[in-house]
Structures are given as C-alpha cells and as structure tokens.
Amino acid sequence: MKLLKLVPDHTNIHFLKWRVPFYVISALLVFASWGLVLTRGLNLGVDFVGGQMIRVTFERSAEAPVATLRSEVDKLGYGEPEIQRFGTPNAISIRMKLPDGADRDPSLSDKMSRTITAAVKAAHPDARIDGVDSVSGKVSKELGWDAFRALGLAALFVAGYIWLRFEWQFGIGALLSLVHDVSLTLGMFALTHLEFDLNIVAALLTLIGYSLNDTIVVYDRIRENLKKYRKMPMPELLDLSVNETLARTIVTSLSMLITLVALLIFGPAVIFGFTAAITLGIFVGTYSSIYMAAPILIWLKVSSKSFVPAEVKSDAQVARRG
Q1: CB-CB neighbours of 157 under 10 Å
Q2: DSSP state of 267
Q3: pTM value?
Q4: What gap in Å lies between CA 201 and CA 153, rounded to an integer?
Q5: In the list 160, 197, 215, 305, which could disulfide-bond 47, CB 3.0-4.6 Å?
Q6: Architecture category of domain 51-135 in CATH
Q7: What CATH code is assigned to 15-42+140-306?
C-alpha cells in the first residue's frame, strides 16, 4: 500500500520570493492588533479585574433575556451589571464589582451572589446557575501582573536559548516571531471580545512553545545546510531548508488542527476561548516560522561563516606551499 504524502518529494516552493510583501502584511497586522487592544481593549475576566461573575443558562429559552436581566439585577442595588453572552445564545455571564468592604469581609460578596442568583431564579424558573467566581481586586492585580510577566519572560528566555544554541541573529528572529504570534492572538481577542482570563494566558504560553518548536526545526535545518552548501545564496538556502521541513510542519499542524476544530465545534463553552487561541496560534506560528523567522536571517547577514570559521591567511599560505 502506497503511503499518503501531503507534501511530494523534492518540493521546491520559492517562499522567500515573497518575503517583502509578507513582511509588510505581518507588520500591518501587528500594528492593527495593538491598535485594537489599545482602543477596544481586552474583555478581561474576573481573574484580572476582580469582582464576581455568575454564569447562567436558560434551559428552556433559545436566547437569554439580556435586557430584562440587566434591569432586574440593577434594581438590587449592587450597581450596574455587565451581562454578556457566554458561548451559546441562551447562556450568559453576569459580572459585578465587589461591594464596598468585601476585601475585609468576604461575607458581603457571598451575600451579593446569593441575592442575585435568588432574584434570577425567582424571575426565570428555567435559569440554571452554572457557577459563581469571585476574585478580590488585590488578587486580580497580582494575577494580571504575574501572567503578563510570565509571557514576557518566556519570550525572552526562548530567544536567549536559541541565541546560545545557534547565533544571536537566530535569537532575534525567534523573538520577532513570538511577538508576531502573540500580537495577532491578542488582536483576535480584542476584535471578538472573547473573555480573556488565565486560561487564555495558558493558551498563549502553549502557543509560544509550539512556535518555538517549529522555529527550532527550521533553524536546525538552516544551520545544517549552511555547513553543507557554503556557496549557495542565502535566499535559495532558506527556501531549501523550509521545503525540507515542510512535510513535518504540515503533518504536525494538521494533526493538531483536527483535534482543535473538533473542540471548537463540539467542545464545552468554558474552553472555547482557550481552543480558539491555540487554533489561531497554529496558523500564525507555522506562518511566522516561514515568513518571519527565516527571512530576517538575510537582513541580519547570516552566512555560512556564521558556523564554519573562514580560513585565515596563514593557513591558506601553508596550504598553497604544500
């Protein structure tokens, strides 16, 4: 039985031919992503902003009565609620600021949640309370700082590792790819306003790991070919290296996407954001390994001399005498 090959042998796609247009597109996408983050902002979850979130599903309704709920909860005297759909049209999340003094007396937040859930159940018999999450303002600030510090340190350590294993140009290329991948993922969350919580931070760290893995495979092949084909022009050598690793990249990415798409369609709503982040990350991570991490080596003047020292004059003279 003949094996199925997603990438034919001796594939020779000229990826680097389009490196400039793709760099322009990537730069525009990164700037657009940060523009969305700064203007629309991220829909931060209770983990980061503090407060209380009550998740409710209306089992016998096609859609949740958002406007009615907002009015009913507002009348309870705890302030204006922030109500958003949560996964399916009949599921919502009610987010409230913690009442004054809740940091000192946790019973105040418990009383607020009991009052709100009782009012929702009384007005809507088909309401099912799926969960109540509560985080103090102090804890949320610490979580937010720790989460984004973890992302920054992960990216820097990744770049440092590649710098030590290869050359400094490769470290810069890897760091640029990671910034690109994380920026586009943040832009998606700013555009869609999916909830951004600690699960999404875990997804971003997973994305960094996947992008690093793909980039190292490409870089390792580039290093081998730099030693093997010392006179080959860099664009041709990079194309050769990417094509030689293309089959592995496609098989790995496709295997993960099959699982992720199934989770997006059939998985629970509570992990939808996590799954969406990793799914997008597979695409941008694969793309950045080809069109971000590899082409920048040309502009950073990587050559065969980066790994094989050039012959010094004295050695050359000895060789000619011999």
Answers
A1: 12
A2: S
A3: 0.70
A4: 13
A5: 197
A6: 2-Layer Sandwich (3.30)
A7: 1.20.1640.10
